[in-house]
Amino acid sequence: MAQTLTCLKVHVVFSTKDRRPIITPEIEPELYAYLGGTMRNLDSRCLAAGGARDHVHLLISLSKNIALSRLMEEIKKSSSKWIKAKGEGLQSFAWQDGYGAFSIGESQVEALRRYIAAQKERHQKQAFQQELVAFLKRYHVEYDERYLWS
Fold it and tell me: Which of 9, 12, 131, 136 is found 20 to 30 A from 148 (Cα to Cα)?
């Protein structure tokens, strides 16, 4: 084949440091737009973004030209710096060190968009920690609970 063709869709989840509820409704739309712009600059696309006050879900169409780890490093580094400049009370903002990433087939995209859009309602009944553990179990990802929340 004379060219490289890919379709790499990934559901990524990550939280604020110590799951601090610092992502306010006022900053949310700007944050998601900023994250989308960062992905565009790295030749990837944000297909959906949402979350709650302490975490973010992204549906990403990953470029063939960047590793997911590099994309996440850039997304978290640049958005953290951006948020810290947004005003009083945000200077200590930080993301958690890691993230969860799960491959998504094309047939799952619309369901995942709906899932991400319904985050606020979901988290009135379920904590982020329960949600993440459910994803890890569904995707058969091995983890050590001692290090999951640091």
Answer: 9
